[in-house]
Design goal:
Largest sheet: 3 strands, antiparallel
Strand order of the largest sheet: 1-2-3
Strand content: 5-15%
Structural class: alpha+beta
Order of helices and strands: HEEEHHH
Number of strands: 3
Helix content: 55-70%
Shape: rod-shaped
Number of helices: 4
Length: about 130
């Protein structure tokens, strides 16, 4: 458990503060006539729409805005992962915690075995 906790403490200590890092995701749609910038937390920082796209109708505009917003959020997620390489993958953390769990089970079995042996020795009649 100490190893897992120490690893997590190290990750926390080496992680840059949210105020130190400003990620954003960017994407375009409608042949570049719509541009979206996404900020952390699923917030949209800006949407730029060229006047030409407005002539296509509201359905087209809504469809292209949806495409651009989703692509900007995907880009934000990819950049966040790429620019934070010190963060281990969840698979690595799960592997470490599984190892700790197995070690704990073995230690508990040894402890219980020792207690059982001690109890058996004290329960025997002297003789």
């Amino acid at each position: 458990m100490d190893d897992a906790l120490n690893a997590l403490r190290e990750l926390r200590a080496n992680r840059p503060a949210a105020s130190d890092v400003e990620f954003s995701g960017e994407a375009t749609a409608a042949d570049g006539l719509i541009a979206v910038v996404a900020a952390p937390g699923g917030r949209i920082r800006s949407i730029t729409v060229a006047p030409q796209v407005l002539r296509q109708g509201s359905g087209y505009l809504a469809e292209q805005l949806t495409i651009a917003v989703n692509a900007a959020l995907d880009d934000l997620q990819a950049r966040t992962v790429a620019e934070a390489p010190d963060t281990p993958s969840p698979a690595v953390l799960l592997d470490r915690l599984a190892d700790v769990q197995q070690q704990s089970v073995h230690q508990m079995q040894s402890f219980l075995s020792a207690l059982t042996s001690a109890q058996a020795r004290t329960a025997r009649p002297a003789g």
